[in-house]
Amino acid sequence: MYAKCGSFEEASKVFFALPERSIVSWGAMIGGLAHHSKSVSALFLYVRMQELGIAPNRIIFLSVMKACACIGASKHSRLIHDHIIRSGIPLDVMVGSTLVDMYAKCNTPEAVEKVFQCLPEKNLVSWSAMIGAYTRVGNHVQAEWWLEKMQQEGLEPDGIILSSMLTAYSHAGLLQQGHEFFMKLAERYNCTPGLSHFNCIIDLLCRSGCLDEAEDMIASMPSSPDMVGWKALISGCKLHGNVQSGRQCFDELVKIDPNDAAGYMLMSNICAGSFALDEVEQIQVMRRFASAMKKPGTAWIEVGHHLHEFQVGMENSPSVHIKIQQLSRHLRNRDYFPEFSVVLEAFPFQDGLSREDNNTFIKKLKC
């Protein structure tokens, strides 16, 4: 109960106080952690379970595969796949589709193909993961091939798969192909374009520098634009330095969700890029008043069989801080200098640290 509600402190107390932990209690704890994106903790418990000689069941394997997918832990993914094989868990549709999705989110298309080909039965979830494996790495050619193969097998793509294809065209900057695909959604795929499809084409137009067309698209949508659409448009305004349109997008974002930090940060960047520093300060005041704080970015790196978690601004590891300083000096020696136009307003330097020491904060903020 506590784990499902995300109350992990209470869940941990109950779990570790149990005189004897059954497979059900292990599964509940690991599943709750994975469900709430506490992936590293879920994998840690899974390893601990293995050390105690407790054999995972199908439910636990599904949870740890989800945890691996969430953080892109490719080495752990292969180990867990190996555990599944050695455990004799049958490769049914659910397990197989989750395996395909896990490898896809770990950016290992070759492994995805191998698992996909072994599936006794393929459903929309497995096909979506297979196609998504290539759209995620920007390989629209292979994605198109698998989409066509899916149709040859007698299955029609759903809205999620079609959105995935549009995302691939957007990331590849293929304006004409993406626009043609969008226009064929209803005729060829019997799919009425929804919010996700409009958001993808707006993103494609913005990336291609067609801001006027993107604004026309967002104005002509059959339903009201959501946060994703406005964020795509304001990101385009940031990319191309369009302050006026950026202000309009920012107003819409604040109307929809005044507590979301992304709009404030993007608008601050736009204003700072045009040296409107007074406006930057006004936006930061609005942001503080709305308590719209951005959750620090987190990344995971696999070294051997160990997962290491890094967070923007983390100071709990002196060795990491020293390594960042060394990398910063190495980059400067190669004539690389980070951009500081927004940092003073949007993310003040910490006391005692120079601009060079804060490169980790800066580059995260500027992304």
Automatic annotation (TrEMBL):
PPR repeats lie at residues 22-56, 123-157. Gene3D superfamilies: Tetratricopeptide repeat domain. InterPro entries: E_motif, PPR_At4g14850-like_plant, PPR_rpt, TPR-like_helical_dom_sf. It holds the Pfam family E_motif. One of its GO terms (biological process) is RNA modification. GO terms for molecular function: RNA binding. This is Pentatricopeptide repeat-containing protein. It comes from Ceratopteris richardii. The lineage of its organism: Eukaryota, Viridiplantae, Streptophyta, Embryophyta, Tracheophyta.
